[in-house]
Amino acid sequence: TLSDRLTTVFSSLRGKGRLSEEDINTTAREIRVALLEADVALPVVREFIARIKERARGAEVSKALNPAQQVIKIVNEELIEVLGGETRTIRFAKTPPTVIMLAGLQGSGKTTLAGKLAKWLADQRNTPLLVAADLQRPNAVTQLQVLGERAKVPVYAPEPGNGVGDPVEVARSSVDYARRNNHNVVIIDTAGRLGVDEEMMRQAADIRDAVSPDEILFVVDAMIGQDAVNTAQAFLDGVGYDAVALTKLDGDARGGAALSIRHITGRPIMFASTGEKLEDFDLFHPDRMASRILDMGDVLTLIEQAQRTFEEAEVQKMASTLASDEDFTLDDFLEQMMMIRRLGPISNLLSMMPGMGQLRDQIDSIDDRDLDRIAAIIRSMTPAERANPKIINGSRRLRIANGSGTQVSEVSQLVTRFFGAQKMLRQLKQGGGFPGMPGLPG
Ligand code: GDP
Ligand code: MG
């Protein structure tokens, strides 16, 4: 598995501190093999690897993760990105009924998916109608009727008068029926063949032209592996579709087909089907698919934990400095500013402390270029000045400005800003404003 392979590569990476070109190349080779093993199509693998390499080269050294974890994180993020660029759900028509047509090979799971989708939509207060437009196989209609009963969704089946033997006529008349009977969604199950053939494509295209679907879903079995790409392309050319539904994800296929189809057709994957029961169905989640393709769920969880632990430790450190009896110094100010910048959203944790929101706002209002100047100013101060900024008089300000290549007015502004923050913190502490965060002293 990829997990094993990467673990081998990464054991030599561990502790190196940063990624060398050679590390990146070796790693890229392993990821390449792994993706191919997961049935991702070759051209897709090539492009994907190129992106990974580029990102790995540009990656900053992380404090939280070792190089091995860092690469896995990049691969995972890219996979999610590629898989999920435009995930979406059903787009309803302005005037009901919304017509959804299913297309795909025989055995891909269309009829099963029709039942699942009907139940899913009914659970969301829709009033779907299932339509049996597969008249190829003798028991296809019965199969849909059984599913409809279980999903408690009515099934429109061919009867004398509404197009026996003519799937196009069944589909067409079903839309009128739905309109008259207040069904807001119509789900049309169609016939498939074991392989792609012209007659099947023509019939699907005829149904399409008869009902002008709002959504055509291409239903594809995740187990068909490398063939998925050809089939997906054939249906795209022959019928066209708006989105993809992946079935049989409960099998042991790793799902590289998803990546290939998404990449080659540019169509979003909308649904994932994971079993024979009606409930085994959900919107497609790119993050789940990514960890499945990588086959590294555990590793990814570990990475998340490592990162979170690291970030929380930083935030706790910051919070205890702020809450301690020691006076807040310019060193603390600088450190906190850098940390808030680096941690980004997680520093929101701080905002849970009363009054902290204000300090955060003050720091957030400083833009990155200012931050560099502020850092330069503080670093040009003596330790005594940083600990006790009150001693920073006019001549000291001039010296600091010269030392940091800034203006005296900027030094003054910083000192004023700092006193503001210090005053605010003092008031908070006096007012007992620090009830303490969980796990923090006092
Ligand atoms: P269709 O020919 O495209 O209509 O495919 P069907 O809906 O008849 O499904 C073909 C077979 O695959 C049936 O035996 C289904 O029970 C099975 N099937 C469909 N979807 C899934 C799924 O997500 N997981 C599993 N394990 N089986 C599925
Ligand atoms: Mg069927």
TrEMBL record:
- Enzyme Commission code: 3.6.5.4
| Residues involved in GTP binding | 104-111, 189-193, 247-250
Q: Name one GO cellular component term.
A: signal recognition particle
Q: Name one GO molecular function term.
A: GTPase activity
UniProt keywords, alphabetically: Cytoplasm, GTP-binding, Hydrolase, Nucleotide-binding, Ribonucleoprotein, RNA-binding, Signal recognition particle
- Per UniProt, the enzyme's principal EC class comes to hydrolase
List the coiled-coil residues.
none
Q: An example of a Gene Ontology BP annotation on this entry?
A: SRP-dependent cotranslational protein targeting to membrane
Q: Where is the SRP54-type proteins GTP-binding domain?
A: 268-281
Q: Please state where this protein is localized.
A: Cytoplasm
Q: Which reaction does it catalyse?
A: GTP + H2O = GDP + phosphate + H(+)
Give the record's family classification: Belongs to the GTP-binding SRP family. SRP54 subfamily.
Subunit (UniProt): Part of the signal recognition particle protein translocation system, which is composed of SRP and FtsY.
Q: What does the UniProt function comment say about this protein?
A: Involved in targeting and insertion of nascent membrane proteins into the cytoplasmic membrane. Binds to the hydrophobic signal sequence of the ribosome-nascent chain (RNC) as it emerges from the ribosomes. The SRP-RNC complex is then targeted to the cytoplasmic membrane where it interacts with the SRP receptor FtsY.
Tell me the domain comment.
Composed of three domains: the N-terminal N domain, which is responsible for interactions with the ribosome, the central G domain, which binds GTP, and the C-terminal M domain, which binds the RNA and the signal sequence of the RNC.
Q: What is this protein called?
A: Signal recognition particle protein
Question: What is the name of the gene encoding this protein?
Answer: ffh
